[in-house]
């Protein structure tokens, strides 16, 4: 009889391990610099959704600045609570942010809602098949379902890579992941 294989780790165990790996970077967090493959996706008039990093997340600011330099407009997610879908609101780099739920900084809620052409997505963990793990509230899963034509680009440190993530029926793979070392595509 075959030796039973150990159960695959579930999403919450993988999330905890990846958060610990990210936290172990401490203050020596690498810079995620723009890469040519990302720059080739940017064009004047496009709307790029970025995010205000929290905790130990990779900072997408150099990527957002490259998008502005390429003539793109920016948007940031606006969060109400776990069950409510996020909305992407117009944001310029000098616009003030206010405190939101989960310790997030976000635009004031009366900014214009916009449809992103490319979504820079914070990752908790990822694998080489471009599967991603987020905070578990489904905020980005639902945003991806609402904007299926948007480019889905994950942003993470390479220590957040895991061998293989479990996937659920609602998971939409990323188109690419940018780390401090690589542009990962399938
Ligand atoms: N910077 C950033 N902005 C973002 C997200 C994100 O992951 N990062 N989101 C992604 O969906 C959305 C906000 N959704 C969130 C949903 C749940 C939690 C949450 O449960 N946070 C944990 C702490 C996580 C940690 O230790 O790193 C908590 O509050 O207990 C956070 C954000 C949109 N904006
Ligand atoms: N299109 C959708 N519409 C409504 N609910 C969804 C949709 N996609 C996912 N969800 C819900 O959101 C939750 C997502 O959980 P999951 O653990 O996959 O999150 P995640 O991989 O961390 O991603 P996210 O960053 O989007 O939270 C699940 O409860 C799921 O039922």
From TrEMBL:
| One example GO MF annotation | ATP binding
The species this protein was found in: Sphingomonas jeddahensis
Q: What is its EC number?
A: 6.3.3.2
What this protein is called in its record is 5-formyltetrahydrofolate cyclo-ligase
Q: Which UniProt keywords apply?
A: ATP-binding, Ligase, Magnesium, Metal-binding, Nucleotide-binding
| InterPro entries for this protein | FTHF_cligase, FTHF_cligase-like_sf, NagB/RpiA_transferase-like
Enzyme class (EC, first level)? ligase
Q: Which residues bind substrate?
A: 57
State the similarity comment: Belongs to the 5-formyltetrahydrofolate cyclo-ligase family.
